[in-house]
Amino acid sequence: MFDDKYQELSFERRPNGVLVIRIGHGHNKNSMNEQLHRELAEVWVDVDRDAQTRVALITGSGDAFCAGGDFGFIERQIDSFDVAARNMQEAWEIVRNMVDCQKVVVSAINGDAVGGGLAVALMADISLISTRARLSDGHLRLGVGAGDHAAVVWPILCGMAKAKYHLLMSSFIDGAEAERIGLVSRVIADEQLMDEAFEVCERLATGPQMAARWTKRTLNHWIRQAQPIFDASLAYEILNFFDDDVKEGLLSLREKRRPAFPSADVHSAGTEREEGAGN
To answer: What is the CB neighbour count within 10 angstroms for residue 41?
Structure first.
C-alpha cells in the first residue's frame, strides 16, 4: 500500500502494528521538495485507513529529520500564485491530516527539523528529540510569516511568551531547551533515541487502542478550535511570497550571510513615515 505510492518516504513494518516512516533518503538533510511536501500531506490519510497500523513512528533518514524546504522549492513559490496556493493547501493538509489521523503518531527527531519538517515533528502526538537535534521554525529568516503549524500549536505547547520569542527571533533550539520549555515531549541521548522510540510505540501498540485514539481525538480539540488562527497564519505566510523581502531572504540563505531585508532599510522606512505624515 505504501511503498508503491510514495517516493520520498520509506516504510518498515514492526511487530504489533508499529509502522516506521522515514523521511527522505539521507541527502541534503532530507530537505523538502514538492514531492516530499505532497507526500507528507497525504500519508496520514493512508495511515488512518491502514488496518495493519496501530501506531506510526516518523523519523528522518540518515542524520537529519527534515531541514525544511530546499532552495528550488522555495524559489518556485515566489511570485507564483498557483504554486503558492497549492503549497498552502498542502501545508494545511499536513496539519489537519495529522490532527485527524486516528492512529497515535510518534516522532523521533533524530536531527535538525526546520520549517515544514518541524511541523511534522511537532504535530506528532508524542515527540522525542535527540540531544544533538536542533529545531527552528525559520520562516522569519526567509522573510515570510510563521505559517505551517507554529501559530496554532506553539502557544499551546510552550506558552505565548516563548512562542513569540522563538518565532520572531527564528532561533535554533536544542533538544534540552525544547524539552525545558515544553515544545517536545522528551529529550533522549542520541544513541538511545530509536530504542526509546520503539519502546514507546510498542507500549502504545499493545495498549487499549480505542481508548488511545479517543484520548488523542479529545485533546486535539484544543488545536481544532484554533483553526481560524491557523488559516490566517497560512494566508499571511503565502502573501509574503509576493514581497521583495523573501527574495532577499532566499538569496541570503544561498550566500550564507545575514539578510538585508528591503522592508528594514532605514532610508525607505524614513521616506514612508514622511509620506504618511503628509497625508
So the answer is: 22
Let me know: does 121 contact 135? Beta carbons within 8 Å. Answer: yes
What would the grid cell of residue 106 be?
A: 510518534
Convert the pLDDT of each residue in 263-278 to its tens digit. Answer: 998 666 544 444 444 4
Give Cβ neighbours of residue 111 (< 8 Å, ≥ 6 apart).
29, 60, 62, 63, 64, 65, 130, 132, 133
The ranges assigned to domains in the chain are: 9-238, 243-277
What's the pTM? 0.92
Q: Report the distance separating Cα 160 and Cα 213, nearest Å.
A: 28
Q: 110 with 194: CB under 8 angstroms?
A: yes
User: Are the C-beta atoms of 46 and 68 separated by less than 8 Å?
Assistant: no
Distance (Å, whole) CA 117 – CA 101:
18
**9-238 architecture in CATH?**
Alpha-Beta Complex (3.90)
Dmax (CA) of the chain: 72
The whole-angstrom separation of Cα 142 and Cα 144 is 6
Q: What one-character DSSP code corresponds to residue 226?
A: T
Q: What pLDDT digit, counting tens, does each position of 71-124 carry?
A: 999 999 999 999 999 999 999 999 999 999 999 999 999 999 998 999 999 999
